[in-house]
Amino acid sequence: MTDKLVATLDKAGVRKISTDLWGVFFEDISYSGDGGLNSELVQNGAFEYNRADKPEWSNYTAWRKIVPAGSFAAFGVGETAPVAEENPHYAIAEIGKVGGGEQTADSAVSRADSALSQTDSACTPAAPALENLGFDGMVFRAGETYDFSIWTRAHGKALPVQVALIGDDGKPLAATVVTAPASNACGEWTQLRAELTITSAQAAPQPNAEIIATQGALRLIFPEPGTIDLDFVSLEPRTTYKDLKHFRPDLVEALADLHPRFMRFPGGCITHGLGLNNMYHWDRTIGPVEHRPHNFNVWGYHQSFRIGFYEYFRLCETIGAKPLPVLPAGMSCQNTSQGPVPVAQEDMPAYIDEVLGLIDFCNADSATNKWAAKRAAMGHIEPFNLEYLGIGNEDLIDDVFKNRFQQIFDAVKAAHPEITVVGTVGPAPSGQDYEQGWAYAREAGIPIVDEHSYQSSSWWFHNLDHYDHTDRKGPKVYLGEYGSWDTQLINGLSEAAFMGRMELNGDVVHMASYAPLFAKNGHTSWNPDLIYFDNENVYRPYSYWVQQMYATTTADTAWPVSLDGPTTLRRDLPNTVSLKIDGGAHADFADFSLETADGTHIDLPDVSYQGNGPVSLPVPEGLAADSCTIRAKVTYYEGMWGVRIASGDVNGKNYNGTSLGRGFSVQVVREGTGYALAGTETSMDAVRPGTTWDVRIEIGNRGEQMRLYIDGALVADGHETPDEPRRTVTVSRDSTAGVTYLRVVNALPESVDVDLAQVLAALNVPDSAKAVVEATVLTGNDPYAGIRGEESPTCPTSHEVNLADGTYTAPAWSFTTLAVRG
Fold this sequence. Notes:
The chain is α+β, with helices and mostly antiparallel strands. 17% of the residues lie in helices and 35% in strands. The chain contains 14 helices and 50 strands. The strands form ten sheets. An eight-stranded parallel β-barrel has the order 3-15-18-19-20-21-22-23, surrounded by five helices. A seven-stranded antiparallel beta sheet has the order 2-27-44-45-50-47-48. Strands 31, 32, 33, 35, 40, 41 and 42 form a seven-stranded antiparallel beta sheet that branches. Helix 6 packs across helix 7 (370-377) and helix 6 (348-363) packs across helix 8 (399-415). The protein is globular.
């Protein structure tokens, strides 16, 4: 017998929804920028890679030096009179005589051609060469034209350079010759340009043109003896998305298909960086690319800033999204072992000018303002019409932060009252930073605050009412980063249920954006992500489709809905008792013991944990108990995110965890992903290496209750509500389009009949509109289907349904949007 729900709408509870509710957030994480959204195919074309990026990297990372037998070449690195002082390193190619004798300029070109064609069995050129391997290889497409550029400085005489696109077999797909003129006495550089087209029967290159190489390379061959300096080597395909240069078109299309109302950029933690030298300065990312100083990325790679603030604004303009740039609040990132570092007070006036300069760059008249003139010089005379400006990201809310933020906030309000400032309230939806951040935001009168929340699917279902009781007179909410921990169907359904309640609370939840946005397969540093990709393809997990289903059905009005019927899940938690240690920090565990409620006591061995877990502890196999107590003396040494003692059925999908380190919390793991129980998190304060704690963890009712004691004091007391809401109905309306949206989430294994008759009657929906309703449904047979980095096994489909009798049957494991017109 099919379950039945009866939905009742409270028409008096009507709420207005923000018109900017659904957006996207771009942060350069997991090679989202260089190697991703940036269409540049050459990696390290400026020869600026170094150990700050990765310990094993150097100026020639991603370059292969080719010196055939019988030839001579030395490839060095120079810094004398560079193209740009901001990026001072360049390559020096010293080429010896290959065949002897001098040549004329004409014969040099002829020799350059033959250097490409004369290859050995390994497809090695006959002359010395440098070969760039790109980002995991280069993809070349039939019919595409590739724009090449390079800065050169030839010593003593003009020197030819053979430029070739190399296919997977090592053979050329296209080639040309550029000639570097002899440098004058001042050592001036010359920029050379060329285009290379891979011939095809197609009349014009197409975005989905045939791929003829996936591990291609760019080869620079030096057929003539001499010395030549090289810098800023570039190769970009000419095909674009709506003429948006320097962006990979298929990734931009995936963004545009989300129909975002805004885009937050460039971060995230990269905004304020690891220390002041790594802080993101917007004004250093505009203008000629050669003069944009490169920097290391806090996620472990390199930033060329080929996509800088100007390009971000152009991207927003192209996809129809309002820009939401985020600047540091005068503080570096708190996620270091010793916490954040502020901009010195003597430097604050200059930093505030930098912040105000961004607003001028976006909005001022280019005829009268110097920053706006820079915008016009880059090709955009008209303003970008900036409305929002983010200040800070996941900052530690202490007195120093408040001091620096307040100075910036006051300056922006005074100079630009039309700008809405978005503040920050820490990295989690509860805890010390969250509480203190909200208290300060109310006190300071910050218009909008940026909340973040990465949680398991269970947390999202359990906390559907998170925004129901938000103070309507205080700051608005921007949920700037959120996501359910994985890319399975159940994760998308949990987000769909929560987003429905965000829409209902759209009068106070002003904006929201899933995060992270992009991740390149093979280089993921955070999971999950909204869009995965490699050099060839784009992959959309379930969460992507959920975001699209909301963003393409935006509304301006919502009403509360109550449900009568079976809506919840209660898990049968296992009583297995096992233990393991995991996490990224280093810590020693001594006096380790486990005691169950029936008096069974087990002494466990000492553990010197090096952050390389998990480490399983020798608990007798088959040990079972509903309640237990864990004791240990923990000496903590280092590590940003701490260590965790996991307990229960640790090899299954439902168990418990206790985090120790720069913060404490007790957690439950449900369906393979975990979350901290509300009210159990403490601030991420610095911990002195060698700090020792006496730890006692009391676990009751198979993990539904957990208490953590440190040195005898209770620091965390968490309780899980056993009933988890899994079926929801929300209602909203687009008044302009005359469409009512009924959203139904059924995250249970049985289909359910949803009686919507009262809802339709309360909204005065005519019978004619009930008869022809468009249903867009995302569903699947397996709630745990969906693999990170791959396309979701199923995607939304649309069909017509008849709601004349007021009943909609929601499939098992589904999210449905019913569009009722009229």
